[in-house]
Amino acid sequence: MATQTLTADNFQKTIEDGGIVLVDFWADWCGPCKQFGPVYEQASANNTDIVFGKVDTDDQQELAGALNISSIPTIMAFRDGVLLHGQAGALPGPMLDDLIQQVREVDMDDVRRKIAEQESGDNG
């Protein structure tokens, strides 16, 4: 599956539609972003069951600001609408593959239970 351009208009719907969504925050002038681009595209081709989105931080400044993106490239990984990973820096292919595998293996029932506990104020 090719990468999708994400904007303020489609970002929330994309991450909430379920499944795994990886988001690359980038800009055209960013050298590390350009180096990471082919790695991200290859991962997209290898993992067709995952949504791979890209946010141009120059074009989508409000969205990047709302998500506290202060350095690019930044990769965020969502699963079933829940942010599981967010980190600045370009990843080499094997590290991106490892991240994808870790996101696949997360027990989302456990994550949702922990979120519910936090929201209810029960930290014990």
Structure, described:
- By secondary structure, the protein is of the alpha/beta class.
- The protein has a single domain, classed as Glutaredoxin (3-Layer(aba) Sandwich).
- It has helices at about 10-15, 30-45, 60-65, 95-105, 110-120, and strands at about 5, 20-25, 50-55, 75-80, 80-90.
- A 5-stranded mixed β-sheet has the order 1-3-2-4-5.
- About 25% of the residues are buried.
- This is Thioredoxin.
- GO terms for molecular function: protein-disulfide reductase activity.
- What is the typical, i.e. mean, pLDDT? 93
Which word captures the global form?
Answer: globular
The CATH homologous superfamily is called Glutaredoxin
Per CATH, which architecture?
3-Layer(aba) Sandwich
Low-confidence stretches: none
Count of separate structural domains: 1
How are the strands of the biggest sheet laid out side by side?
Answer: 1-3-2-4-5
Order of helices and strands: EHEHEHEEHH
Q: What is the straight-line distance between the termini? A: 42 Å
Biggest pleated sheet: 5 strands, mixed
CATH topology: Glutaredoxin
Structural class: alpha/beta
Q: Compute the number of helices.
A: 5
Radius of gyration of CA atoms, rounded to a whole number: 15 Å
* Beta content: 15-25%
Helical content (DSSP H or I, runs of 4+): 40-55%
- Report the CATH C-level class: Alpha Beta
Protein name: Thioredoxin
Keywords: Disulfide bond, Electron transport, Redox-active center, Transport
Organism: Luteipulveratus halotolerans
GO cellular component, one term: cytosol
